[in-house]
Structure formats: C-alpha cells, structure tokens
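Re: duplicated header lines in exported structure tokens

Our pipeline writes sequence and tokens for each protein into one text file. With two proteins the header for the second block appears twice in some exports. Here is an export where it did not happen, for reference. First protein block:
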Amino acid sequence: ANYSSKIIDPIQSRCAVFRFKPLPREELFEIIAKIAAEEQLHIDQKAKEALYEVSEGDCRRTENILQSCAATNKTITEELVFSMASLAKPKEVMHILETAMQGKFSESRSLLLSVMLNYGLSGLDIVKQLQKEIWNLSLNEKQKVVLIDKCAECEFRMVEGSDPYLQLEAFLAQVGIIKEQK
C-alpha cells in the first residue's frame, strides 16, 4: 500500500493525490481473464477468488501477485496465490482460532507454527490475518471486540520489538479463555 504520510511534505505539496476505490469482483475477474489469455496462463476459479481476496480489489496488487505466480508456474492455483502473497489460507487461520477456542492450546500453537513456517509468515503477517478471521468466529459481539483489542495489543507489542511467537501464543491463550467470558 502507499501511504501519503510516508512522503515528506515538500514532495507532497507538489503532487496531486489520487485515491482509487477497490474494483468490484467481476471487473477484477475480467482483468484476470484478459491477463491469463494474453500470458497463456491457466487460472482456476478458486485461484481467481484467492486473488480477489488477497488483493482486496487492488488491481496493481493482483497483477503483481499474478506476475510472481506466472514466474513459478503457468497453472495458477489457490495455493500458489496464497504462497506468493505470503498469506495463509483463511480456512487454516480459522482452524487455528477454532482449535484455540476449544481449549486445545498446544494443538493451536502447533498449527500456528506450522502455518507460519509453511507460508513464511512473520508475526505481523499472521496477526493481521487472525484479526480478519475473528469476525467469522461464533462469538458474541462483545467477545469479538475483546479479541480485536487483544489482537491490536499483540501487534503493538510486536512492532515495539517483543518476540512475535510469544505474543501470538499469549493471543491464542486469550482466545482459549474468551468462550468462558460473557
């Protein structure tokens, strides 16, 4: 992403700022199909869905991920998309959270480590994905808000230099006890 706050004021004052809305799913799929035809790529429907999810409608990000995928293989799969985007599949992230919610802390830790190693994710990468999936958990709104707060605290501590895995373990512990809170 581009952040205008990262550009110094003298340069900002000489620039026009353009903000682009995310493209709708169908428009992005048309662009993906056009690229696939021109570059002779085979992209299945799940891979298209993954591209849309990963890019959040950002065409530039979609093209960059597609370029990385195509450099590896002419057949683009969902797994390849998530791998090139350095993201875990949402189902896997959800499984980590659900396992922690069931009180299986050790198993959820193992799943977390496995996902981080398999996809080459940093602590900050995975915490952002965990935050997205919290909203899909079968918890009440108050519990979700508490977990989002814990997620933000986890991210803050990582940015400040704390051990990412320790912070993620602490977060999973909070997920494990949240079910008991009303």
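Second protein block, exported in the same file:
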Amino acid sequence: MVTQTSIYETELPIRAAVLEGHAALLEHWASPGTWWSASERLAIVNEVRTAWDADQLPPWVGPSTVDGLVADDHVLPAAVVDIIWRI
C-alpha cells in the first residue's frame, strides 16, 4: 500500500510499461525491509526526492540544522536525513 509517495504526474507521454515498472518499484519500497519499516523506507524515498530538488547546502551545514528544512516530527532520525542529503 502506497501512502506517502506517488508516481510522478506529468503531461508528457510515458509508455504504460514504464509507469507499470515505476509502480512496481514503488510498491517494493513501500513494504518493510530487513532494516527499515515500510514508513521509514517511504520516508527515505521522499527525503531523497526532497534533497535532489533542493538548493545545495554547504558541506558544513546539515539539513537537520536548518530551520524548516526537516520537520521536527520526521519519521527518520536527523542523522539519517543528513546522510541522505550527503549521498
């Protein structure tokens, strides 16, 4: 069950096979793994997308230290969010 992340929406024509592949991968991410729960795995995916779209931070600034960049009630620990942004 996908709850937090969705397939990208676009006006561009995308083949059905590509959309089906993305949906299958998203379902895989939305299931619990050996190290992370389903909600944590989706939070990781969402955080990767957020980091990818955000302005680059200086290497000495962790995203968890910037007011408003990471929610106080984030599912993931601040250290994990910082690592995601660095990778």
